[in-house]
Every structure is written in C-alpha cells, then in structure tokens.
Amino acid sequence: MPGRVRPAGCRVAVLGGTGWVGRHVCAALAERGHDPLVVARNHVPHVSGYDFRPLDLVAAGAGTIAEMLRAEDVGIVINATDGANTTDGWDRTEAELRRVNVDSVHRLLAAMAELPWRSRIVHIGTIHEYGPVGAGIPIGESVTPRPVNAYARTKFAGSAAALEAARDGVVDGLVLRLANVCGPYPSPASFPGKLLQMFRDAAGGAEVVLSIADARRDFVDVRDVADAVLRAVRAPVTGRAVNIGSGTVVDIRDLVAQLAEVAGLPPGAIKETGGPVPSLGGDWIQADIRLAERLLGWRPRTGLAESLRAMWEAG
Questions:
Q1: Does the annotation count 185 as an active-site position?
Q2: How far is CA 103 from CA 40, 59, 106, 194, 251, in A?
Q3: pLDDT at residue 276 above 60?
Q4: Catalytic pick from 50, 130, 151, 185?
C-alpha cells in the first residue's frame, strides 16, 4: 500500500537467500504474506521478485551489517549462508570454511546485538555437526556433537555461537540442524546436485560413471525445510537446536536407482566404480525429529519419490 509505514524491527532478512535453501525460504515467506529481504554477495534471476541488498557477509564488518539491518527494519534474520554452497563445494580449506561458517556468524550476532529492537535468528546448521553414530541409532538433540571434518567442525562452531548468543539473551533464536537435503534446484556442490547433472548429461548420451557410498542416509525435501524455518521464526522458544529431517533412512544405491528411473535412464546406464566416496558424515544418518514436532509443530510432508521427481522436473 502506498505510504504504508512498516513497524521497526518487523522485517525478515534471508542471508544467503540466493542459495538452494534460501530461495525456497524466500518463496515460503512470500507465500505467507511476508516481504523477504534477500542479502547475498551477488544478485541472481530467481530472486528478482524480492528486495535485494548486495553484501559480502564474509568481508563485511559488524557495523556494516548492523547499519543494513537497521536501515531495512530487520528484526528476524534467517542465516542460510553455507561455506559449502559454492562450485568447489566442500573442497575448501578449514580456514576458508571458518571465515564463512564461523567468523561471519560472530559478526552477524554482534550486529544484531546493536539493533535498537530485540532481534531473532534462525541459523541453519547441519546434522553432520553430531559426527558419526552407530548404525540403527536415530540422532537426537541430546547426542554430544563430535564433528570429524573441517566442514562439520566449522558449522558446529557457528551453530554453537548462535546458541550461546540466544542463551545469553543477546538475541532470540534457534538452530536448525538439517539432514541431507533433496528437492528442486539443488546446489551443484551437493550429492543430489551432482547426481542430477550427471543424469541430465546421460539423457544427452553421456556415460554415467559413479562411485556410490555403501551408506544409509536421511533425506528431507527442501520445501519441507523451508516450512520448518518459517515455523522456527514464529515459535515461542529460544536457545535450542532442533533436528530437521525425514526421520527415515534410504540406501544411497536405492536413491540413485530411483532418480535414474525418474530420469528415464535404461537399465545398465550407470557404471559403478569401486573408488572411495568423500563423505561429510557416517555411514548411517537418521534424524530423530520428535523435538521438531513438539516445539515447532512440524513434520515432513514430502516423500523421497516425490522430492526426486520434483528435482528432475524443475529444470
């Protein structure tokens, strides 16, 4: 409405809103009547329908971030930035990952503390922060995190900073630890993103040569993740980590076979090698999602088959 004045501190900013999770969070916010502010280093076409502020969160100081949040009346920050959401994926040094996943989080929290209104953060973490667990054991929030690689260690450090700030009353907020994500428009650095590109190339005649991990993992649709984020924005709870996943496991070979069927690949189109498979977590990952239902009223609604089909059809 022309001339409408927005109350101070009521706007939602999505940091990393151009990424895989961020774009779905923005869409979910818009569908529910919010006016999301996308904050990222570079503009991309799929955020053209939203207000956009270019900002390199890795390089920006706390004062610069605070000035932007204050000027835009931001009172809720969804931090969907991720050091692995790049073309080189997780093949980055621990120092590089720390700059994105830890240092920038500390500066963001310092900036939010400067705002003249009480602010809230929903920080996107990862199930890999817990480290490997035994086969058959669902990962609950009471599991002591023991991350075993650079990505998981830096993500855990960023999540820990957000939780400490919330528990100390600097901000309100939650950490959502996501299981493996699938669904439309995956990051090219992710396993679903790499698999999707291989199968698109195969549809054009290329051979699919693939190493498949002997593992069972929990995959949650990205649109269900976006729903969980919005529920976390509204939830009357702070200072907690909450796991977001499907609550089930799938054999990685079954997932590959399901997507191959969706892609219409003929039997025998995939040549499996016996090489090593890089991994961020253990051979068994199943999220215990009971706390998400209790605190957020959230449960996943999209099955894996539907998620994979939507991923393939999204283009």
A1: no
A2: 16, 10, 5, 28, 36
A3: no
A4: 151
- Residue in this structure with the two tokens 């002997």, named with its chain if needed: 214
Distance of CA 39 to the CA centre of its chain: 15
User: 68: part of which helix (H) or strand (E)?
Assistant: helix 62-71
What tokens appear for 17 in the block?
């809103």
Q: What is the pTM of this model?
A: 0.94
Give backbone dihedrals phi and psi of 209, rounded to 5 degrees, phi first.
Answer: -115, 120
Helix axes 191-203, 252-263, angle to 10 degrees: 40
Backbone torsions φ then ψ of 314, nearest 5 degrees: -70, -25
Torsion angle, alpha carbons of 175, 186, 188, 126, to 10: 20
- C-alpha–C-alpha distance, residues 288 and 282, integer Å: 16
| Digit-coded pLDDT (tens) for 82-104 | 876 554 455 679 999 999 999 99
CA torsion through residues 130, 134, 138, 144, sign: negative
Q: Give residue for tokens 């069927």.
A: 261
